[in-house]
């Protein structure tokens, strides 16, 4: 009974965190009440539908139209990524349309289709009666810049006054062709000094942007560009400026400097708005709210599982933890090091290979390019883990009397109890379902998701649910052996540690390799020194940089995964609930998030 009271207390705290954090995030997302936000579906050409958030300041009206801003996020992101910038413009009196590119978020189609949706979105913004058609600015982060923003600007040259490229460029990344850029009006570039993707503008590191062969010619100078100085004329539309804050590519959407520079440029080039200083920013409170909600979602899984296990239906799953007959002493240390290192050691090889020439082509079954990279990497690592389990069993642990019972797979004298396996699957679904429903509500009613920088949990569309089903089995090849390794081979202190200590230890084992990998990449980047992890070939550093950005979420997700494995193994004496829960959650996370390279 006492355990149930504790679980109920933690459950209520988690619910308050999810709902309270979302309410705070939603309020700040309106510019602290200065604007209204609504989700719109733009029915564009050829059947494409673009999803967007429309921010309308309360000061805007047909009699007093406001300047307009169209903005697009980066590759494999969604419109929510630009909400920090959008809300800051909204509270300054700008109408903002923050859109999902095709294949991203809630927009249909595949990545890059129909000009990424740029023209359709710009036409929609111009159709708003409260928008001053003579004062339109375009903002694009990463692919959102060289993709939809550049395409829209060239297709409708009289429809805008200025452009801001946030960690982006106006031509294809890594290409010397600047022809799409020549006639663009009033262009600003924001290239961070410690950007991971300097190769996008054909330079080795951020500070070299002043002499970039695809940026410098647009400033009509042969001398290094002077950072922060306006070249050309704003009145004539020939103005150019380069901002160089100390920030990286992935962090620019959550960086006061990049957001402030975006505001600064639009205030210089557009008329209207309140003129509030670019440094006056409140978006950090939104980030606090959505991060609190994300943490609450993670916390919710544990008391929800505990309470369900106390019910009559699920109580039979609560078997005793089997005797530990896995690695001990030096053997445990060696096995832990192999476990933490094998994934990072294979990551760059898989990412670079898949990034430039997909080993598994996108299809209706596996339609998301970046999820496919994770999938192939997971399958490779998972197959190696399966091989190691068999080798370790027959060479080492079997001699100590270990069997499938000790690995949390079977029951002595009964084998695999399939009724309990199915109950474990149902338990995992019921643990996840309340979080999903709360998230679906906050997303549709409050227009916020559960988010902390690059780690974001969002609901699925029908197309994304279809992708979710397709990815389940391949990813299970990774999570099944991983769960067995922790339960049967890597329990700390010979299996006698407290559940808290075991959760912390397993989190360190699973995450340490990822942390070291990221440090090996980012320390040279921050120090502007030669890269240690740089891939191979001329575009290897670009692939390594992209890989680093997409490796960051694992530092948050892997401790959660390790804790879920451990907690539910200790609660049930079997690996199944933890494995099902982790597989369902991570595949949901990736499928809801990933960009479609194949239209479903």
Please give a quick description of this structure:
The protein is an alpha/beta fold.
Care to describe what's here?
The longest helix has 29 residues, at about 420-445. This protein has about 600 residues and is of the alpha/beta class. The chain has 14 helices and 10 strands. Helices cover about 50% and strands about 10% of the residues. Strands 1-2-4-3-5-6-7-8 form an 8-stranded mixed sheet, sandwiched between helices. A two-stranded antiparallel ribbon has the order 9-10. Helix 4 (about 145-155) links the parallel strand 5 (about 130-140) and strand 6 (about 160-165). The chain folds into 2 domains: about 35-280, Rossmann fold; about 315-595, no CATH class. It is globular, with a radius of gyration of 26 Å.
Show the helix and strand layout.
Layout: H1 2-29, E1 35-43, E2 49-57, E3 66-72, H2 83-90, E4 95-99, H3 118-126, E5 131-141, H4 143-155, E6 162-166, E7 187-190, E8 240-243, H5 256-269, H6 283-309, H7 329-356, H8 369-395, H9 418-446, E9 450-452, E10 455-457, H10 462-488, H11 499-527, H12 540-551, H13 554-572, H14 576-593
Parallel strand pairs: 3-4, 3-5, 5-6, 6-7, 7-8
Antiparallel strand pairs: 1-2, 2-4, 9-10
Helix pairs in contact: 1-6, 1-9, 2-6, 3-4, 6-9, 6-13, 7-8, 7-11, 7-12, 8-10, 9-14, 10-14, 11-12, 11-13, 13-14
């Amino acid at each position: 009974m006492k355990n149930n009271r504790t679980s109920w207390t933690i459950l209520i705290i988690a619910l308050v965190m999810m709902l309270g954090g979302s309410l705070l995030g939603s309020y700040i997302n309106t510019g602290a009440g200065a604007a209204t936000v609504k989700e719109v579906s733009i029915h564009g050409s050829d059947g494409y539908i673009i999803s967007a958030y429309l921010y309308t300041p309360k000061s805007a009206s047909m009699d007093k139209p406001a300047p307009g801003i169209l903005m697009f996020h980066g590759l494999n992101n969604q419109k929510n990524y630009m909400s920090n910038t959008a809300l800051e413009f909204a509270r300054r009196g700008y109408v903002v349309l923050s859109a999902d590119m095709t294949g991203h978020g809630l927009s249909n189609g595949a990545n890059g289709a129909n000009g990424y949706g740029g023209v359709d979105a710009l036409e929609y913004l111009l159709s708003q009666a409260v928008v001053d058609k003579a004062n339109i600015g375009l903002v694009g982060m990463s692919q959102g810049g060289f993709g939809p923003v550049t395409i829209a600007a060239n297709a409708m040259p009289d429809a805008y006054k200025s452009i801001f490229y946030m960690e982006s460029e106006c031509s294809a990344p890594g290409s010397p062709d600047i022809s799409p850029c020549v006639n663009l009006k009033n262009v600003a570039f924001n290239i961070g000094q410690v950007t991971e993707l300097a190769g996008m503008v054909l330079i080795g590191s951020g500070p070299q942007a002043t002499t970039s062969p695809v940026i410098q010619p647009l400033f009509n100078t042969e001398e290094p560009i002077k950072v922060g100085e306006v070249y050309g004329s704003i009145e004539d539309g020939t103005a150019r400026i380069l901002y160089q804050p100390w920030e990286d590519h992935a962090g620019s959407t959550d960086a006061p400097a990049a957001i402030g520079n975006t505001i600064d440029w639009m205030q210089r080039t557009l008329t209207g708005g309140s003129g509030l200083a670019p440094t006056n920013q409140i978006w950090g409170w939104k980030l606090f709210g959505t991060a609190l909600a994300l943490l609450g979602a993670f916390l919710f899984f544990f008391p929800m599982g505990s309470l369900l296990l106390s019910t009559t239906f699920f109580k039979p799953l609560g078997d005793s933890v089997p005797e530990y007959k896995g690695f001990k002493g030096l053997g445990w240390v060696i096995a832990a090091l192999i476990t933490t290192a094998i994934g990072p050691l294979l990551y760059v090889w898989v990412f670079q290979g898949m990034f430039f020439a997909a080993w598994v082509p996108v299809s209706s079954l596996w339609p998301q390019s970046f999820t496919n990279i994770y999938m192939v990497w997971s399958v490779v690592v998972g197959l190696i883990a399966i091989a190691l389990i068999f080798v370790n069993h027959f060479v080492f642990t079997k001699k100590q009397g270990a069997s499938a019972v000790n690995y949390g797979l079977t029951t002595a004298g009964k084998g695999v109890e399939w009724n309990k396996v199915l109950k474990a699957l149902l338990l995992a679904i019921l643990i996840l379902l309340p979080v999903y429903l709360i998230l679906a509500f906050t997303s549709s009613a409050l227009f916020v998701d559960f988010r902390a920088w690059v780690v974001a949990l969002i609901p699925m569309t029908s197309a994304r649910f279809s992708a979710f089903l397709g990815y389940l089995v391949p990813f299970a090849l990774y999570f099944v052996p991983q769960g067995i390794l922790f339960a049967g081979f890597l329990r700390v202190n010979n299996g006698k540690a407290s559940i808290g200590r075991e959760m912390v230890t397993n989190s360190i084992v699973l995450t340490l390799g990822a942390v070291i990998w990221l440090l090996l990449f980012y320390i040279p980047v921050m120090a502007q020194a030669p890269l240690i992890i740089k891939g191979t070939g001329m575009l290897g550093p670009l692939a390594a940089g992209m890989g680093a950005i997409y490796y960051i979420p694992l530092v948050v997700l892997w401790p959660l995964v390790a804790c879920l494995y451990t907690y539910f193994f200790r609660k049930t004496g079997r690996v199944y609930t933890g494995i099902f829960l982790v597989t369902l959650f991570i595949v949901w996370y990736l499928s809801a998030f990933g960009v479609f390279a194949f239209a479903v």
